[in-house]
Amino acid sequence: MSRIADLYAQATGWIFEHALQPLLYALGLMDWAEDAYAWLDFALFGLFGILVVVAVCRPLEAWRPVEPRTDRQAVRTDMLYTFLSRLGLLPLLAFVLLASAQTAWEAWLTEAGLLPPTLEELVPLLREQPLLAFAAYVVILDFAEYWRHRAQHGLRWWWALHAIHHAQRQMTFWTDDRNHVLDDVLAAVWFGAIALLIGVPPGQFPLIVLLLRLAESLSHANVRLDYGRLGERLLVSPRFHRLHHAPLSAGAHGKNYAVLLPVWDWLFGTADFRRGVFPPTGTPEEPEALASGGWLRQQAVGLRRMVAALAGR
């Protein structure tokens, strides 16, 4: 793992030194060099994540698709969402804001004598078992993501944003990143804050993100695939999550919220384990622009809907 991290760091440094830094110098933007390096780090990791997802999910979709790709423009819009989300500035902004907030927060808690213990401080065994610690972090963060997802459906103003994700009638693995920018910001802050709170090591955080994003992309894939009666209760499958995107699962009536582990839906009464069911997706009751509009149009409509929901309209 450390060897891979070293190679990744060397590659990032080489690209920055030989490509990005000369460009910044030529444009007179060297004051932005540190921020540009951080963006490059995120962008390369995002690109690696996209390549992993495509390598896993695209062959599956070609193997046993649930439905043909009839609306390729809608899929291209989802692809734009993915590249903007994983290669754009949003991860950098979230990182900077969270890092600054963490520093201020920990300083205040230290002065007040209230600094909470990390997970490894609470369970010393995890310090000696890195794989076990990694699994524990994944389980806790997956549990947190379940409740964040329920809030997206249960709060009217948040559903006004999240409905963009559910409006897609041509669902593919690209649909995973089909979210309003504000929705992405809230999700990033939530996920990052929980990770900081339980003390996820910086070296493990990107791997956890990669694992959960791969799981989410696979669960959105246009593939007729389930994991069997037992497997469906251990890991979220494309069939399990497709039921979540069915029209009858929109808003507060949602089912199958889990990202990785269906156990949360089973424990809290939101599971739908019907096997062999691959329903159509979409939200017929929401504005058509959320389904067929371009990226900018969907962002604008989502924002107006959120403001209206906050205003009680």
What does this structure look like?
- The structure is a single chain.
- The chain is mainly alpha-helical.
- Helix content is 67%, strand content 0%.
- It has 15 helices and no strands.
- Helix 7 crosses helix 8 (156-166).
- The chain starts with a helix and ends with a helix.
- The model has no long low-confidence stretch (mean pLDDT 86).
Order of helices and strands: HHHHHHHHHHHHHHH
β-strand percent reads under 5%
Average pLDDT figure: 86
Compute the CA-based radius of gyration. 20 Å
Task: Please describe the structure with a list of short key phrases separated by commas or semicolons.
single chain; 313 residues; 15 helices; mainly alpha
